[in-house]
Amino acid sequence: MTTNNALVDHPARRLVVTLPRPYDAACEHFETLVPEVDLHRFYQMASWKATLELAEINAPYGFMRYYRSDITALMAGSASLWKASQYFVGNHTIAERVFRQDASAMLHAPLPALIYADPDGDTKFVVDQPSLLLAGYGNPEIAEVGGELDALLAELIRLLGGEAPPDL
After folding, report:
1. Which of 37, 44, 117, 140 is a plausible cystine mate for 23, CB 3.0–4.6 Å?
2. What is the pLDDT of residue 167?
3. Using an 8 Å Cβ cutoff, are 152 and 11 in contact?
4. What is the dihedral of CA 35, 41, 43, 46, to 10 degrees?
5. Average pLDDT, the chain
6. Can you tell me the distance from the alpha carbon of 89 to that of 93, in angstroms, rounded to the nearest whole number?
7. DSSP characters for the chain?
8. Is the dihedral of CA 125, 33, 72, 113 positive or negative?
9. Rounded to whole angstroms, what are the CA distances from 157 to 16, 35, 43, 107, 161?
């Protein structure tokens, strides 16, 4: 019996961006810019063209919210005092372009992101840089999508009132 196991090292860069709004307002603003995906409507689409058109409407800034968790509530009663919300954000119509090349690239789609208030009360937005995650697949078509996601992420950070890191 032959196994095709592999170990793949790949670089990652965590982006930690300070946002100008207090935590609750930053989460609300983020959720306005990154609307919840309307899975029911997407499941009803009769063609990929219709899916692409709906994604343009559902993701005005390129990203949709696939998941949200109130980490603060989950940790209630513990010694942890952070305020934090975790999200999975992405766009399945963009992710399809990496999925068709390598299904394992879906490990990074959607992207996990976090908004939290640090001990000083500053609000932070945290996400790993997509281009570095996707460059690890050694496929230029996947890497190209990573670059596009970096650009969308830089614009999202700007819309959130943060300063996008120069490497993004």
Report:
1. 117
2. 83
3. no
4. -130
5. 94
6. 12
7. -------------EEEEEESS-HHHHHHHHHHHSPBP-HHHHHT-SSHHHHHHHHHHH-TTS-EEEEEEEHHHHTTTSS---EEEEEEEE-HHHHHHHHTT-GGGGGGSSEEEEEEE-TTS-EEEEEE-HHHHHHTT--HHHHHHHHHHHHHHHHHHHHTT----TT-
8. negative
9. 10, 15, 30, 23, 6
Tokens of 163: 């300063």
Q: What is the pLDDT of residues 34-88, one digit of tens each?
A: 999 999 999 999 999 999 999 999 999 999 999 999 999 999 999 888 899 999 9
Q: Which long-range contacts (CB under 8 A, 24 or more apart) does 103-110 make?
A: 104/137, 105/134, 105/137, 105/142, 108/133, 108/134, 110/66, 110/67
Higher pLDDT, 9 or 158: 158
What is the rounded CA–CA span in Å between residue 2 and residue 30?
Answer: 47
> What pLDDT is stored for residue 89 in this prediction?
98
